[in-house]
Design brief:
single chain, 302 residues, alpha+beta, OB fold (Dihydrolipoamide Acetyltransferase, E2P), 2 domains, five-stranded mixed beta barrel, five-stranded mixed β-barrel, 13 strands, 27% helix, elongated
């Protein structure tokens, strides 16, 4: 009996020590990855910057190149590929045509047309995206072509990405064979034909005020602190979260609370080929002597 009691006591003591030791150890290893919202936003900004930056801009801004530099000289017609797709399958070609639609979500694909033929284009390794406001522009693409069967589900998904209506998406039935390209290089070219000005709207535009001259704001910014004002000017530079406008030789930096990939792409491409202008509604902020304009709503005309 005594022996049995001693055994039970020893087991209880050993169990208690094990539990105590286990409780003293950390329950999980500290994560080495940043998880804060600020860190995630910073990573998003870097990613957007990479996606939005052309590797080269030339001819006084009349074209901008994305991805790797174009190496081929001789162009192949899309008509020739459409007539004999098997002859070009898996080959690298250089094609030129006009953009007729772009993925409205992030620009991860586009459709190009030439001589009545259409080509669906994606970008190799997601190394770059197509600016989403460039439908109608001429484009030069270098990459590998294929002739693929596209399932109905993917066709509907692409229609949704293109901003098609529910009725248009529902009307898509069955699989379809189409020409495709995995592009490694893309050059966007400003069309030679004149076109109407286009506009990108950001935010709710029901709060417009009387326009305040940018020269007055820059001259005496303290006067406008805490007030909602409306300003405008030509865009002269841009980043993912801010851009700078100019009017009559005076400049002001406009800042946004979230990254704006669309706006950055507009400035990088459209402003490079022709002037782009911004009208913004918000408030002046002054911190450590630096004057900025916090944007609530804005519109960009290009």
């Amino acid at each position: 009996m005594f022996r049995r009691l001693m055994t039970c006591a020893l087991i209880a003591a050993f169990t208690s020590l094990c539990v105590s030791a286990q409780d003293s150890r950390p329950t999980s290893k500290p994560s080495s990855r940043p998880t804060s919202k600020a860190s995630k936003t910073a990573n998003t900004k870097k990613w957007l910057d990479k996606m939005a930056t052309p590797i080269k801009v030339g001819q006084n801004g009349r074209w901008a190149e994305y991805g790797s530099a174009i190496k081929m000289k001789a162009q192949t017609s899309l008509k020739a590929i459409a007539n004999k797709p098997e002859d070009f399958k898996g080959k690298v070609v250089l094609l030129r045509g006009k953009i007729n639609s772009i993925c409205v979500k992030k620009g991860c694909w586009l459709r190009m047309e030439d001589s009545g033929e259409e080509l669906f284009v994606k970008f190799k390794d997601y190394a770059f995206f197509a600016p989403r406001h460039l439908a109608g522009h001429d484009v030069l693409l270098e990459g590998v072509v294929s002739h693929d069967v596209v399932k109905e589900a993917e066709r509907r998904h692409m229609a949704e990405d293109a901003g098609k209506s529910k009725e248009e998406i529902a009307a898509i039935k069955g699989d379809k064979t189409e020409l495709r390209m995995m592009a490694r290089s893309m050059r966007i070219i400003e069309p030679t034909a004149p076109r109407k000005a286009q506009m990108v709207m950001i935010g709710d535009h029901n709060n417009r005020k009387k326009m305040t001259p940018l020269t007055d704001v820059v001259k005496d910014p303290k006067k406008y602190v805490g007030q909602d004002i409306d300003i405008s000017g030509q865009i002269v530079s841009a980043k993912a979260r801010e851009f700078e406008i100019e009017s009559q030789g005076k400049r002001l930096t406009l800042t946004f609370s979230d990254p704006l990939p669309d706006l950055r792409l507009v400035v990088m491409l459209k402003a490079a080929t022709r002037p782009a202008y911004a009208r913004a509604f918000g408030q002046i902020h002054i911190k450590d002597g630096v004057v900025t304009f916090a944007v609530k709503t804005a519109s960009v005309v290009y």
